Amino acid sequence: MKPSDTPKTYRVKSFGCQMNVYDGERMAELLDAKGIKPAADGEEADLVVLNTCHIREKATEKVYSDIGRLRKADGSKPLIAVAGCVAQAEGEEIMARAPAVGMVVGPQAYHRLPDMLDRAVKGERSTDTDMPEDAKFAALPKRRKVAPTAFLTVQEGCDKFCTYCVVPYTRGAEISRPFGELVDEAARLVDAGAREITLLGQNVNAWSGEDAKGRAVGLDGLVKELARLPDLKRIRYTTSHPNDMTDGLIAAHGEIDKLMPYLHLPVQSGSDRVLKAMNRSHTADSYLKLLDRFREVRPDIALSGDFIVGFPGETDAEFEETLQIVDAVRYAQAFSFKYSPRPGTPAASMDDQIAKEVMDERLQRLQAALNRDQLAFNEASVGKTCEVLVERKGKYPGQWLGKSPWLQSVFFEGDAQIGDLVRVELAEAGPNSLKGRVLESVSA
């Protein structure tokens, strides 16, 4: 399209974490408010927003590849905006290397995207990577109609400075959004159709604030308040840090029925030496004892975690310690990655970088163990009855797909609608999903 053309359609492509998904949804709402419509499936968009993630390997180069592939059938390029963490870290470089990009906006400044778009239409390229406090949330439009499951960012940024991680540099210091603002947004999400809300944060359990009576509360206090919303049926939160886990949040898993029996708590390594080199604040033993406390209050809780293999200096024996912690926990789900250096992080300049082939072999062994345990968890669920929140239609006529309380994908056949809570018996297990048999529809 020509610079003078106002975009009529847009597409937001979000990569990486759930917070990026949330940010992508909010940017879409900003564009909707300007009268720009989402491009239909298979339709070329006039404006493409690449909402990037800096966590994965070679993230920056992948952005340039995506930019290079954006071309319309007539050979022209759409108007391109690069947002997210790569934009924050590489903003000026992107502008210099990619003339096709009209806007670069960081994750704390995307509320200014409409103004940047007005300038881009006039041919003015712009970069905004400022990090104001949480001004963007006040500037965002009210939430529109949402799916049965919705994300709600409650905390942003990180003060932990793990030696491998760029988040403190791309998302800034830890901030907590105000209690009342979050309760109001959650209520609007429920009014718009959400039955389940996942509270998001880089360190979500670091959230703190003051309730309506001026009392200091942590994340458990916020969860308790949201649980009062009658039409909100489920609450989840991610991602937690072991250092920020409180007695109150642990107890909440045994006290609040709407808080789902699922916990994502990254450990990263089973080696205390590696954990110290990563600047993690826990040991393998303290992590395991923390999980034991969750299991005491909620014996059926599904546990999830993150792992990095091949951190600089990791020995074969230290990797074996990671396998040992996997064997001890028996995760229901987990995410695992090869270490990859991020420019500017302390780990990138450490000695003893691990060879790629060594990391590949370790990752394969780790994922084999994690896949084994995920299948075992699913198989142990067969025979249970639970409520499944219907999220979408399945592959076949009459088939529906939703999530169990333990965040398992469950498909079933029967009468249902998106947003229903359906009681099913879990009848068959596979590595990534379960088949359910409908018992009754709990709610519509």
Low-confidence segments:
none
Number of helices in the DSSP assignment: 13
How much of the sequence is in beta strands?
A: 15-25%
DSSP strand count: 21
Quick structural overview:
The protein is of the alpha/beta class and 444 residues long. It has helices at residues 18-33, 59-69, 85-97, 113-121, 135-139, 167-170, 179-191, 219-226, 247-255, 272-277, 284-297, 316-329, 356-381, and strands at residues 9-14, 37-38, 47-52, 79-84, 101-105, 126-128, 149-153, 155-156, 175-176, 196-200, 208-210, 216-218, 234-238, 262-264, 302-309, 333-338, 385-393, 399-403, 409-413, 421-429, 433-443. The protein starts with 8 loop residues before the first strand and ends with a strand.
SSE inventory with pairings:
Blueprint: E1 9-14, H1 18-33, E2 37-38, E3 47-52, H2 59-69, E4 79-84, H3 85-97, E5 101-105, H4 113-121, E6 126-128, H5 135-139, E7 149-153, E8 155-156, H6 167-170, E9 175-176, H7 179-191, E10 196-200, E11 208-210, E12 216-218, H8 219-226, E13 234-238, H9 247-255, E14 262-264, H10 272-277, H11 284-297, E15 302-309, H12 316-329, E16 333-338, H13 356-381, E17 385-393, E18 399-403, E19 409-413, E20 421-429, E21 433-443
Parallel strand pairs: 1-2, 1-3, 3-4, 4-5, 5-6, 7-10, 10-13, 14-15, 15-16, 19-21
Antiparallel strand pairs: 8-9, 11-12, 17-18, 17-20, 18-19, 20-21
